[in-house]
Design goal:
It is built from 3 helices and 4 strands; from the N terminus they run βαββαβα. α1 packs antiparallel against α2.
């Protein structure tokens, strides 16, 4: 099972570290990552493998959202199928 994580917000030190620490603590593997900074806005999309996660999906989503709130970011996770369906043209 795979999921897509999106992170958007003002650039600051430690964004990737904060998100990847949560993922590592939950045994979620990062398969692919793309990040860019547009002026002072940070954007990142991660494709992750959640098949061996040690926490359920809703708890993982809550942890990511909470960390995002602490850092002034929008951090969301969606199952890959839902993400693809929402962004299909």
């Amino acid at each position: 099972m795979r999921a897509v994580i999106t992170v958007i917000g003002h650039d600051r030190v430690g964004i990737i570290a904060a998100v990847s620490t949560i993922l590592a603590d939950c045994n979620v593997n990062i398969l692919d990552i793309s990040q860019t900074i547009m002026q002072d806005m940070f954007t990142m999309i991660m494709l992750v493998d959640i098949s061996k996660a040690t926490t359920d999906f809703s708890d993982l989503a809550q942890q990511l959202e909470q960390k995002g709130n602490e850092m002034g970011l929008s951090v969301r996770i969606q199952h890959e199928e839902i993400f693809n369906s929402m962004h299909r043209i």
